[in-house]
C-alpha cells in the first residue's frame, strides 16, 4: 500500500470528518434553537422587548450548545492524552507483561515483537480484552512511540499463529499510515455530538427528587425534557455513525491489503476473517462503550445497519483476498469449528507456538492451493517505503536475531530499571579512552549502582552485531516508557552527554541515541507528537543537502565517491539546479538533528522526494553498507515514514 498516497487519503478523510462534524453541529444547534424558541420564545412582552428577548434567547442557546459540544469533545480528547494505553484501558484492556508465562499471551507478544522489529518500529504496548469472546483487535495512539495494540481473548483462542500475525499486521498498517491520531480525534468529536443523548437519558430516567409531594410532576417534566434531548441527540447519533462509516470503511480494506504486503501471504488474514464469520460471537464486543471505538476495530463491534457499518461485509473482504472463496464454504467451516478447541491441559513446552497450535481451530486453506504467497519483484527503495512491506523471510530473520542475542541483554530489556541500564550500555563507546568520561556522566546522573549495572552489561553489548542493536532498543522501549518522567528526562540528557563526549562520534552511536531520544520524547507527551508537515521541499534545501552529505560520506570509501553520491542525490531532488559540495562540520551531530527535524515538517509528497534522493545516494556505488542501513532507518523514523525493507536488509 503506497504510504505517501495513503497520507494524502488520511488528509482527505480528515476533511470529510471536519465537514460531517460541522454539519452535525449545525443540525444539532438548529434543532435545539427551534425547540427552545418554540417553548420559551413567546412570552407576553411588548414588540420591541420581545424581539430583543428572542435574539438573546437564540444567541445564548446557540452559545450554550457550542460550548457543550466542543467542551465535551475537548474533555474526551484530553482524557485520552496518554495515547494508546489510555484507549486500551478505557475499553477494558489488560496489559500483557513482558515476562508473561501463559502460552497464548507469550505467542501474542512474540508475534507483535516480530512485526514491530521487521517494520523498524518500537514495540508497542500490548493489551488483551479477556472478557471478549469475539475475534477483534485495534491499534491506538498518536504515533508509533505511544502506540498500543489490543486484541480480544477470541483472537487468542481461535486464531493460528499465521492468522494472528495477519491481524497484527493489519493493525500495524494503521500505525504506519497515520490513522491512529485521526481515530482518537474522532473519538472526541463523536463524544461531543452524542453528549446531548447522554444528558437526555439522565433527565428521562433520574429518580433523585427532594420534594416527595411533587415527585410525579417532576418525573413527567424530567421525562419530557429528557425525551426532547434524546430526540435531538438522535441527530448526533445519526451523524456520528455516518462519520465513523465514512472515515473507517475504506481504511479497513486498505489495511487488509497492507497485512498481505506485510506477511506476503493471504491465508493468515483471510483465515482470521473466515473464523470471524463462523465463530459464535463473530467480531462482536460486549463492552459498554464499544460504539465509541467501532471505527478503529478489526471487525464490526455490533450489528450495524449497512449505512452505518464501519467495515465492508465479511464476504467482500474475504473475496478481495481470495476471489475463489464462496459463501457456501462457510457452513462447512462452521461445522468443523465444533469441538476443535481442546481443553487446556497445562502442558509445558519450550516451543510456545507448538503448544498453542494443538488447541486451535484448523487452518482454513483453499483445497489444492499449496502456496498462497505473493510473488514480489525487486523494487527501488522508495517503492519499498511506499509498500510498507517487509518480505516474509524478514520475520524469520527477526526470530533468528532475537534468539542469538545474549540472554543477559534480552532479560534486561524487559524491566524498566534494567532497560535503563541497557540503554546506557548500548550508548557507551567502543573506544576505551572515551569510557571514563562517559562513566562519570552515568555516575553523576544515576549513582554508582546504575553505573555498576551498566558496566556488567557493556561486555555483552560489545559482542552485538549491527543487526542486533536496534532490535534490542525496540524490545526495551515498552519497559523504558514505564520509568517516571523525571528519570526519563535524566536518561535523555545523559544519553546526549555520553554521545557528545567525542566530537567525532561514531555514526552508529548517534543513530541509536537519536532514535531512542525521539521515541522517548514522543512517548512522554503523546499529543505533542509531530503532525503532518506543510513545508515544501525548496524551503528545506539546506537540511536535505546536509542529510544527503552524511549518507554519502559514511557510505563511501573516498571523498570523490562521496561527492558523486551527494550530487546524484541532490540532482534527484532539484533537477537541473547547481550545488556546492556540503562539507561536513566537525560537530555535525546537532546540525543533523536540526536538519532531520526540519525535514519532518515537509508535506508527504516532499518526503517521498527525500527518500528518493537518499535512494540515489545509497545506490551510487552499488553497495548498501550496514552504516547506510542504520542511517536510513533513523532518517525514516525521523520523517515518520516506514523503513524501506528491501534496502535495509539487516534487522
From TrEMBL:
Keywords, sorted A to Z:
Cell membrane, Hydrolase, Membrane, Metal-binding, Metalloprotease, Protease, Transmembrane, Transmembrane helix, Zinc
Q: Which cofactor does it need?
A: Zn(2+)
N-terminal signal peptide: none
Q: Which residues cross the membrane?
A: 16-45, 57-75, 182-200, 220-240
**InterPro entries the UniProt entry points to:** HtpX_protease, Peptidase_M48
Has the keyword Protease been applied to this entry? yes
- Pfam family of this protein, just one? Peptidase_M48
Domain Peptidase M48 residue range list: 106-323
Name the CDD domains for this protein: M48B_Htpx_like (cd07340)
Q: What is this protein called?
A: M48 family metallopeptidase
Natural source organism:
Dyella flava
Highest classification ranks of the organism: Bacteria, Pseudomonadati, Pseudomonadota, Gammaproteobacteria, Lysobacterales
